[in-house]
Write a structure and sequence with these properties.
The protein has 52 residues and is of the alpha+beta class. The protein is built from one helix and two strands; from the N terminus they run αββ. The protein has a two-stranded antiparallel ribbon. The longest helix is centred in the middle third of the chain and has 11 residues, at 16-26.
């Protein structure tokens, strides 16, 4: 079984939508999950779909 490292980065912002083109188009990442009002925070999880 091959294992891969997992990296998680939190990047605070007041405008998530303005940052998404950089991560999606510039880095080629996918939006994996979105959440709203989780303890007062909204967020987007990005990464490679199907990656472990």
């Amino acid at each position: 079984m091959t294992t891969f490292p997992t990296v998680r980065v939190v990047r605070p912002t007041d405008d998530i939508e303005a940052l998404l083109p950089f991560y999606r188009e510039g880095l080629g990442l996918d939006v994996l999950y979105r959440f709203a009002d989780h303890d007062g925070f909204n967020g987007v999880m990005i990464g490679r779909a199907g990656a472990p």
